[in-house]
Amino acid sequence: MSLPGPLAGVTILDLTRVLAGPYATLLLADLGARVIKVERPGVGDDARRIGPFVAGRSAYFESVNRGKQSIALDLRDPGDREVFEKLLARSDVLVENFRPGALERLGYGWDTLHERFPRLVHAATSGFGQTGPYAQRPAYDLVVQALGGLMSVTGQPGGPPTRVGTSIGDLAAGLFTALGVAAALLHRERTGEAIQVDVAMLDCQVALLENALARLLATGETPGPLGARHPSITPFDAFRTADGHVVIAAGHDALFATACEVLGRAELARDPRFATNELRTRNEAALKAELEGALGRDSTQHWLAKLSAAGIPCAPIQNVAQVLADPQVAARNMIVELAEPGDAPRGAAGTEAGPPRLRTAGNPIKLSAFPDPPVRPPAPDLDADAKRIRSELG
């Protein structure tokens, strides 16, 4: 059962696997689309075999495939191709993350699809896109984090190459793919024209280089890793306290002056080395030593209370378990439960059917017109919805 949302009535035919593509279709499912996941018979999505496992089911797979339906089809088998083409005729969007050319070899390239199914949007997510000299290369998250420059600005100065702690290469591609699909659907509604959405993981990493790219283009200097601090806003870093660390982000002169008062070092705001943000950034190491000298006199919780009371943006550095226990995360319904297979939630809070089994991240897009249920449908077993789907196709 699809969740209520602005994409209700939209059918997504999902040929994706592992993470980038499934994350895109998860976002679309959370917004109300019906997502029919087409998997290889007897094998399914590779992510079904990636741990950790709970009761024999992959928590990894469940986390990005909840709320979808599954049908197993061999696209080289004439009978299964007939079923697939009936699905194409009834779907609004085909999403896939094959290497470019794979669908063409099966007879389902964009030109063929567009001619036979003129209202079908085609979203293709790949490592390097449908064009360019790298188009046929394989890619994983680590590859595009390295090639896209992200690892060059991550970690401590002088430290070893460091991957961002989540699969940002895959997740960014999934986010941009979902946005592209929504834009393509709006374009089709306005013009009647279905289009192709081409998203490359490497492109997405370049798009996310943000300040690092701006600094290079503006100054000609190649950025490197800076640890936790911001390259052009100071103080904006993790600072050592008596028993740990506190993050302080004083983004302008007034906040800096207030922070200095809270720390009992009001004179720092008048120090000619620190009078402006530009000067503070230039003298970042000296300022950090002064601030940590003050912060080292008491605990992280002591300083968090005082800084927060003064309106200074600050935070502890929480581990993942602490994030799950955070009251703000709970208040925003950002950890949801998955119903048992066969028992799907019916929408509003308190109306779920069946005992919850796993927990996973919720939908960060909160929409005033639609519920944000605390219990969500589970990921499907392989081929679990084949009978229903085939029946609908006649």
Distance between the termini: 20 Å
The biggest beta sheet reads:
6 strands, parallel
H-E order: EHEEEHEHEHHEHHEHHEEHHHHEHHEEEH
SS-based structural class? Answer: alpha/beta
Oligomer: single chain
Low-confidence stretches: 344-355
> Biggest sheet, strands in spatial order?
5-2-1-6-7-8
Please compute the radius of gyration using only Cα atoms. 25 Å
Mean pLDDT: 94
Number of strands: 14
The total count of helices amounts to 16
C-alpha geometry: elongated
- Beta-strand residue fraction: 5-15%
Helix share, percent:
25-40%
Question: How would you summarize the topology of this molecule?
Answer:
Blueprint: E1 11-14, H1 20-30, E2 34-39, E3 53-54, E4 57-58, H2 59-65, E5 69-72, H3 78-90, E6 93-96, H4 102-105, H5 110-116, E7 121-126, H6 141-147, H7 168-191, E8 196-200, H8 201-207, H9 211-219, E9 236-240, E10 245-249, H10 253-262, H11 277-282, H12 284-295, H13 300-309, E11 314-315, H14 320-325, H15 327-331, E12 335-339, E13 356-361, E14 375-376, H16 386-392
Parallel strand pairs: 1-2, 1-6, 2-5, 6-7, 7-8, 12-14
Antiparallel strand pairs: 3-4, 9-10, 10-11, 12-13
